[in-house]
User: What shape does this take?
Amino acid sequence: MNISVASIGEILWVIGIVAWYVVRYPFERRARRVRVMSSRRSPTDTVGLAAALLGLAIVPGLYVATGIPRFADYPALPWMVGLGALIFAMALWTFRRTHKALGRNWSISLEIREKHQLISNGPYALVRHPMYTSFLLMGIGQMFLLSNWVVGLAGILGFALLFFLRVGKEERLMLEFFGPEYRAYMDRTKRIIPYLY
Assistant: This one.
């Protein structure tokens, strides 16, 4: 049986999504046991999370399952799939390290947890929002793994909507809670790309 390069990319994407869930699940379970002290959930928060889910999981998942939309396909090349696998692996590594660094502070939403601490080690030593860094890398990896313009752009757009709808609110919440300590942290780190942005 001869498997196509496009099929290899799709298989690697599915493995990556399963790995993403495997990384997240234990942290999600632990987070439910830590009391929330302050929550800033809002409709825009929900829209951002839905956009990320749609662009990074649902649209590509439907494409892998059905091949729709075929009109936007482009040829899958071995170097693209290899690069996509590498970038997606970097996303998962960053995702795992971010969860590990956050520990009991992790939340899917804008929340301050009981005994919340400002984390500035691990990936947080370089950027303030490494979780978003991992989502950006996932979107880029998706573009190379799944050879379809619509699916590739869906991942980047889903990330962008989540990022731009939430990052400012997250930083305001951290400034409100940690004050000058967070301001000093902001002064020495970038948002999602080390040394650049």
Observations:
- The CA atoms of residues 71 and 148 lie 8 Å apart.
- Strands lie at 36-39, 111-113.
